[in-house]
User: Fold this.
Amino acid sequence: MTSTLLTDLYQLTMLQAYFDEGMNGTAAFEFFARKLPPRRNFLMAAGLEQVLDFLEGLRFEPDELEWLAGCGRFHRRFVDSLADLRFTGDVVAMPEGTVFFPDEPILRVVAPLREAQLIETRVINLLQFQTLVASKAARVRLAAPGKLLVDFGLRRAHGAEAGLLSARASFIAGFDGSATVEAGRRYGIPLFGTMAHSFIQAHRDEATAFRRFAHSHPQASTLLIDTYDTEKAAHKVVALARELAGEGIPIQAVRIDSGDLGAHSFRVRAILDAAGLTKVKIFASSNLDEDAVAALLAHDAPIDGFGVGTRMNTSADHPYLDCAYKLEEYEGVARRKRSEGKATWPGRKQVFRRAEAGAAFAGDRLTTNDDEQPGQPLLSPVMRAGRRLAPSPPLGAVRDHAAAQLARLPAPLRGLEEAPPYPVEVAARLLELARRVDAEVLDRT
Amino acid sequence: MTSTLLTDLYQLTMLQAYFDEGMNGTAAFEFFARKLPPRRNFLMAAGLEQVLDFLEGLRFEPDELEWLAGCGRFHRRFVDSLADLRFTGDVVAMPEGTVFFPDEPILRVVAPLREAQLIETRVINLLQFQTLVASKAARVRLAAPGKLLVDFGLRRAHGAEAGLLSARASFIAGFDGSATVEAGRRYGIPLFGTMAHSFIQAHRDEATAFRRFAHSHPQASTLLIDTYDTEKAAHKVVALARELAGEGIPIQAVRIDSGDLGAHSFRVRAILDAAGLTKVKIFASSNLDEDAVAALLAHDAPIDGFGVGTRMNTSADHPYLDCAYKLEEYEGVARRKRSEGKATWPGRKQVFRRAEAGAAFAGDRLTTNDDEQPGQPLLSPVMRAGRRLAPSPPLGAVRDHAAAQLARLPAPLRGLEEAPPYPVEVAARLLELARRVDAEVLDRT
Assistant:
């Protein structure tokens, strides 16, 4: 599935043209977002780890080359030249979990033109999706401080990789875990999950289903109570808890998955508390997103945790980023795309972020790579000559970095509604470079 | 990536409970959509092929079992029991490309409970995504009759599998091809694509870039003309076409990727026609969806083909289906989920569709599996005892079936705006079964 042929045809047609011309000078491409989705105040970078894996593993397999040679579009000498192609370039990037804003590159690739071009499609495919999901999941995290948040979205994620990578991206952004088993195995993400309605329905009655499940999972029984009648089921949980107490089996939590989650949670909390089950948690799910969670908590619904799926991991209100991976320099000369509404800032760039130690971020400045500005530079080297410069940080450290970033966002940007934009200035040096590039381009067109 | 552990944790916790109880009777689950997304008049089934592949290949690998045994949630006897687990059930389904409506099952699995339960997550993950994309792509096809439509969406698809499967689903729904090379290799989908803006920018000037590309691809040169100034570039195409005519190299098409696509297309068409290049096609891309395409064609924009990406293959206006895979029968007894707002029709079901031969579909009837109704039954057996009953139809045949389905949709449903709903009746026999199941459930709660 992740063959090197997982790319756009035009990458290969361009490569053949470059091959025929003998063109393969050093190119610099940068990945950035053009603008924020509606109602969003920031983005959170994610996906770098998978990009670096992709670059380190880049090669055409013999059967892929055979297919290319036989497809009727490419000549043999060009196809043969691909056999030795590896990624030999350098990469600088913002660490995963870093908050960023439009026009700020989060990744720069500097490599021979053909390599830097070939990777475009998959680099965007990996960075845009995880960044999209991390940015959405961060909103859910900000809307529910202190609450347990679990990714429930594999089934309606867009395919296998989307399910896995959205578990990863939402964990980075502050979710506590995922229901996706493979994400637990692969990334060490804590797993959550107990039973579906079918489990209740397959049994003769609900109380039997609850009892059997608790016996099979004496350490981890969250009981799903909305299959027939939520409050009646809560009473059955009370009866079962008394019965199981003698066996030393606790009920951990109940889950409500339909109806008015707020109203049910108040009634269920009252039923549980009246029976002394104050430690049994209430977990809610069903079409949740940051707005639904915020609305429940604004009414003080006694819900301890949320399963958030589809709307988070498809970023349902805006399921894509207006982002690009653009040529900014070739053979030492800065370039700039001028297409209407799609112009870019030329050259290799750096982002400096100002903030008092530990205080909220005060503003960013976008400038050329060789400029110095007040604040901290956000892009730093991660790969040289096709090899990582250091082992990747553990996912827990990435998640801590993300949490620290969210904590330092100016308060209005942490809300769910659109706030005045975070200040991102373009430094004089970059403005000057853009003017110079424009003059040269006018000359060439 | 497509490990059997690509599932929700609760599938495995339920399976252990069933194992402990010795429960593994015959279960029937059905996949259906609860309702249409806003502004949609129909859905188009897709993804069955990948579901059947998944079922035929279902097994736990030794390293997966080791991980499960070591993760602290499952006991050894249960994990050992998974080593022999295969899918041994039966499947009935609507053929891919079939148009369907809410509450109509497009797939039924009848299998031992544990098998039928375990597969839930991935079955939904595969069916909902391809159905979502095929349903969206069908709208683009209906909005642009006779026009060339190409999937351009891999880069902003949600990961690798989403890119591949959206190429497949959009081809089924009537797209002519894709830019995704691996989709060409794997599914035989026709490929399209030529150059990016970076190709123009990497060259000294636009005319040189055009000439070099045409020489490298003498059979297939579509030139991207919006990097600097679209109309100036069209004049360069005219000059180049004259130059290349002597060498017998034709220019096939130009592509416009920014600005007011309609206005540019009129001006570019005039420039090309004035030079006698009436056969050079105009291809347009840039944030297109069915509405944008329809608006361009409503103004008679002289555009011959469209590259449609992100908004189609993320189904951007509604990136998920309200769909489910629900237990409808266990050990011969019909079941029904009664959760508020999420109730389902019980038992094994069939859908009959009425239509005069070759005429538009006149209405569907949802009924029990053992009932007969006027019209044609839409669900038929595709797998028995875990094996396909017949080789899968070639993708071209699936695409033809889809086109025939769209042609027989009542005319108002083929429009982009919401039409009065297509008539789907529930037959007396199913209503009666639902009443009986409700009475039994009341008895049990």
Remarks:
- The mean pLDDT of chain A is 96.
- Chain A touches chain B through 110 residues (CB under 8 Å).
